[in-house]
Amino acid sequence: MSMLKGANTPVTARRVRVELSWSTGPSVPEVDVSALLLDTGSGRVRSDRDFVFYNQPEHASGAVRHEGRETGPGTATDAVAVDLDRVEPGIGRIVLAASAGGGSFGRVPGLSVRVVDAASGAELARYDSTDATVETALLAGELYRRQGAWKFRAVGQGYSTGLAGLATDFGITVDAARPAAPPPPVTTRPAAPAPAATTRTPAPAPVPPSPRPAPAAPPAPSSAPVRLTKVTLTKEAPTVSLTKQGGTSGALKVNLSWQVRKQFKGWGAKLGRAIALHGDLDLDLCALYELADGSKGVVQALGNAFGSLHRPPWIHLDGDDRTGGSSGENLTVNLDHSRDFRRILVFVTVYEGARSFADLDATVTLRPQHGASIDFSLGECTVPSTVCALALITNTGSDLVVQREANFLVPQRGVSPQRTVDHAYGWGMNWTPGRK
User: Fold this and answer.
1) Contact, 425 vs 288, CB < 8 A?
2) What's the predicted TM-score (pTM) here?
3) Same structural domain, 277 and 165
4) Strands 341-352 vs 329-334: parallel, antiparallel or unpaired
5) Sheet holding 15-23: strands in order across?
6) Pick from 297, 318, 315, 385: which is nearest to 348 by CA?
7) Structural domain of 357
């Protein structure tokens, strides 16, 4: 259903996905979607925790979740998932916003917002934005309550002050400065020890999108202001310094999320159809580590080698996810012990359900507890690869550097994916068979 600006329509599905799509190109700015949960009375957020975006990807209620970007030939989509049944009673509106990095929305062609039924994939509403010019942030649309039911309104209201200006207008406390005081240590609960069975290791004021009551008293701020900074690694700019970003302590969360592309072609078509039929794709996020004392090892689900945050290797794998779409696979690094690391190579293997990474869209996100979020896409796999090196974290002695690898490797016959990535990066470990 195509809508004009200002039009509204009922939303009958209880779980929806709101997608912002656009055409990509060399001069097109990077676009990010976000959501603000607004109080019924004040029309503002109750606290900074009511802002869902790339650095704060899930609301505490579980009602709204940032799902991340998907890329395809000439197109990109960023989306949030909304479970309307879980939206707290005091929330009257969920504003869907977008920001353009490195340019304005006048340079973003083919911009549209779609609301789809999360269960069936059916399109419930669509709004195509065609009149953007100098805006660097955009209120694309909003989900709102009306007489006990939910509706969607196409807004298309622009801001020239970016995401920070938009967020501030709705009561978000934005922190653009680096904290001066040293950050607190990691507080994650220690994991139980588990044997590793697979290795032997040695600006203008914006106009509100709809009438709002007079603002209430400012909401109580959350424990720390929202940080909007983000770094996207590319082939042309593959590295970033965690030291310069202020992210050398606390917990570093590494997330891998994926989904199967909807269009299958070429030799990857058999893989795509197999995944669609069986739905049992299992990718494993892993990490090779080398510590400052020379010891080496692996953290992975295979062999229950989940690691630990509070003793060597200071790395912990949260679990083994087989869906990829919502939480994906997560790995945590205790950067309070960054001086104990020489290097960490984060990689992923196809454990079962596919013969390679072809026809998968995968995104890697690194979220330091302090400093800017880092993300990148793996791009298209064009070789029969079952193991991909994702990112290399290196301690140079004076700097802690993250490098995008996105390196698809092809194991030789009879050689395991782990041994393949070990050989490619010179880890020199002894490997034995294992299972999970």
Assistant:
1) yes
2) 0.60
3) no
4) unpaired
5) 2-3, 123-128, 112-117, 15-23, 75-83, 64-72
6) 385
7) 231-431
